[in-house]
Specification:
By secondary structure, the chain is an all-alpha fold. The chain has 3 helices and no strands.
Length: 118
């Protein structure tokens, strides 16, 4: 992020955090649909990378909120942040299991190697 998060107000942090959390939730939902419908392993990997990036982007905003909020509200904020991190970790395990379960399957996209998703 090119913005100076250290200058964000509580409202700016909350607004940005809300958008990031919605995007993380969307990525997790889409990953689970990919797994349930046995769709593209590449798409599952891409969505996981996106969710991890969004979670990383939300870290500095969470830190700024913790600086600005009263202790009790800060604790709730931290719990929520950790819950989103846990959600991403859980779906990461699901994606890894899905990719393992499809080991040996032909790539749906020619030339893609699930062992090397890059």
């Amino acid at each position: 992020m090119a913005e100076d998060i250290a200058t964000f107000t509580i409202d700016q942090c909350r607004g940005r955090q809300k958008v990031l959390r919605q995007k993380i939730t969307g990525c997790c939902t889409r990953m689970r649909k990919v797994i349930t419908n046995k769709l593209s392993r590449r798409e599952a990997t891409r969505l996981l990378d996106e969710a991890r990036t969004l979670l990383g982007d939300s870290g500095p905003i969470n830190d700024r909120l913790l600086e600005l909020l009263e202790e009790a509200e800060g604790e709730q904020q931290q719990e929520s942040f950790l819950r989103y991190g846990g959600d991403v970790d859980t779906v990461a395990d699901e994606v890894a299991a899905y990719i393992s379960s499809r080991e040996g399957d032909e790539a749906s996209v020619p030339g893609w190697d699930p062992a090397d998703p890059e």
